[in-house]
């Protein structure tokens, strides 16, 4: 939550369910959530046995790591390592989505109604009444101009009471539905601030360039936009 660039760390196995679902006492594996694909990587025991993490999700409030084979036991001291190539690409996609969200909101008064981010492409859904592909392409070009300005990205926290006084922090059409007292803010300095729990790059220059891929008309106030980054 504080350092998206943490790639390796030591931990202890807290629980094991069905031989393959592992809970650690601390983790930097990002679980599937918020439309963002999960982290993968490797958990290694003190005696050198490696366990590939193939899926990370949330189960009963805990972050659960699914490994491909049995063998980990409660109390095992382990070393964890992210699949950094995958994580970093998802970070770039996620921050790119915030840029797009800021442009759609600030320039066209459009809000994101849903999103899905993988290592192959990004998707955002807009509360756009009528499909306007030219407007969408224009917004992507404006987003690329923002990226060229190389704004830094900072993470900090606000109390829920304080955060709710600033409507600019909540740009999703559904609002902020999480029942938590402390709100994590992702601040693209000088451009956009949003409540968000995901992993992001430190500077927009790490994103690269956003490329329009496709649109799908899903109905009134429901337009889907696909994009890639390079």
Summarize the structure.
With 230 residues, this protein is an alpha+beta fold.
Your description of this structure?
By secondary structure, the protein is an alpha+beta fold. Helices cover 20% and strands 37% of the residues. The protein folds into 2 domains: 8-82, Elongation Factor Tu (Ef-tu), domain 3 (Beta Barrel), CATH 2.40.30.130; 87-229, Threonyl-tRNA Synthetase, Chain A, domain 2. The strands form 3 sheets. The protein has a 6-stranded antiparallel barrel with strand order 1-2-5-4-3-6. Strands 7-8-13-12 form a 4-stranded antiparallel sheet, covered by helices on one side. Strands 9-10-11 form a 3-stranded antiparallel sheet. Strand 7 (112-117) and strand 8 form a beta hairpin. The radius of gyration is 19 Å and the shape is elongated.
